[in-house]
Amino acid sequence: MARSRSISGSGVWKYLNPAYYLRRPRRLALLFFLFVSVSMVVWDRMNLAREHEVEVIKLTEEVLRLEQMLEELKGVGDGKTLMTHKDVPEDPVDVERRQKVKEAMIHAWSSYEKYAWGKDELQPRTKDGTDSFGGLGATMIDSLDTLYIMGLDEQFQKAREWVATSLDFDKDYDASMFETTIRVVGGLLSTYDLSGDKIFLEKAKDIADRLLPAWNTPTGIPYNIINLRSGSAHNPSWAAGGDSILADSGTEQLEFIALSQRTGDPKYQQKVEKVITELNKNFPADGLLPIYISPDNANPSYSTITFGAMGDSFYEYLLKVWVQGNKTSEVKLYREMWEKSMKGLLSLIKKSTPSSFTYIQEKNGNSYNDKMDELACFAPGMLALGASGYGPDEEKKFLTLAEELAWTCYNFYQSTPTKLAGENYYFSAGQDMSVGTSWNILRPETVESLFYLWRLTGNKTYQEWGWNIFQAFEKNSRIESGYVGLKDVNTGAKDNKMQSFFLAETLKYLYLLFSPSSVISLDEWVFNTEAHPLKIVPRNNDQRKPTITLRQRRFGGEIKG
Ligand code: DMJ
């Protein structure tokens, strides 16, 4: 026993002794071979396990995606297709801020309800209403989708009853076809898309039919004023040489294309698309058009080139029709024209001194003007929305430009004693920006851009900036009977108008700034220039049949993400 123990003991130890192998090279080689083989098997197994893990993750993601699709399909017909469901936990700060914005909407709406029901706009200080748009209930219609999105059910139902029983477009009134389209046609169509309630589509068709004769000009570029009863149309007397205004003539495409899609009648789409093909005939290489265009021969007349007043939404709609048309080859022309215009926009970009604020100049002939309207603060949002259609380098360049311009626009607010922006700004060497026209009429453009930048970059800074602007409105513009603009952002002196776009746009964009991205997802909706979201549906050139049918959504609280 003692002997065998010592043999087996020395047998184990000798294999662990390196000298044993040095004396036997063949065994050393065998050992090395064994080591390499085992290592390869282990390495191979580990790789396989890793590949499996990746595969499992991919499959889990796919299952989640399919589950989500199933959820959405289950919602078809009860209005739930209008939103995407995602169980993402919400930041409690966002929830609280969203509530505050909703409360602001309740205050604005109940003031309108109390003092100006059915009128176009509320005059909060005199506690009455005024018909600034011919008595079309502009604030009522502009507010419908905001009420709906915020889940203000009772208010929405009461407004719906007014639309069904009291809204009458048969008015001997010379209306702006631009304002009437973006507020009334846009507001009604958006509410139809959200609710599926046919009354809104019927009314949208009624007013659009009254506007249609405005396009009966030698070129198809519309007259900008039209009598809602007689259909007689003309241009405003103050416009140069009886010309049409660029923004007023090129900002009906989204609404009228949407109307053709929803009614199955191509006539609306044909009228507005003709304007773009006409303007494209002599479209300059830099894509910049002066603000006055002849409806007789489509020639631009010597006038300002601007991304501010009277130019702005023409450029916005070139991009948005491309988005509305699912970015397909059928709407390629719009994207091409927009990209040309963005080349032109780059040629107007300048930096201030000493603080290097990026701004967009205006141009007249060959001379540049260091002035930027607050209205042009829609441009950062437009650039952010359009950036993803470029290749990676251009995308980055335009997104960076959007962020720089948003910083400038935010500073339009921050640089005044009330922290509310004036109407326009001048830039001069060594002095950065100074306010020109110093009123603030509750405009939305900067918060609109902050909304897009927040959605598209996920950078919470934009929410903070939006929150600061909201607080400045609360502090300076809120009074017991609604919200007013300021006559002067330096002194805080108040005016007497609650603009309808404050409820349509400013409060809606602020509300969405603190809502999950799935609420009115940018993949499914496109906002018109008055912030009325229109559902993106397949573009159909054969429009004999309606391309979408929506049933009415049961009301039950705010639209959830
Ligand atoms: C709104 O009617 C629209 O946003 C339009 O495009 C520009 N003017 C106002 C808001 O400032």
Task: Tell me the number of structural domains.
Answer: 2
**CATH class membership of the largest domain:** Mainly Alpha
| Low-confidence runs | 1-9, 63-85, 542-547, 549-556
* Mean pLDDT figure: 90
What is the overall silhouette?
Answer: elongated
- The counted number of beta strands is 18
Beta content comes to: 5-15%
Oligomeric state of shown chains: single chain
The neighbouring-strand order within the major sheet is 3-4-5
Main sheet properties:
3 strands, antiparallel
Radius of gyration: 31 Å
Distance between the termini: 80 Å
**Helical coverage, percent range:** 40-55%
Helix segment tally: 18
CATH topology of the largest domain: Glycosyltransferase
CATH architecture of the largest domain: Alpha/alpha barrel
Which structural class fits the helix and strand makeup? mainly alpha
Task: Give the cofactors and ligands.
Answer: 1-deoxymannojirimycin
Pfam families: Glyco_hydro_47 (PF01532)
Protein name: alpha-1,2-Mannosidase
Keywords: Calcium, Coiled coil, Disulfide bond, Glycoprotein, Glycosidase, Golgi apparatus, Hydrolase, Magnesium, Manganese, Membrane, Metal-binding, Signal-anchor, Transmembrane, Transmembrane helix
GO biological process, one term: ERAD pathway
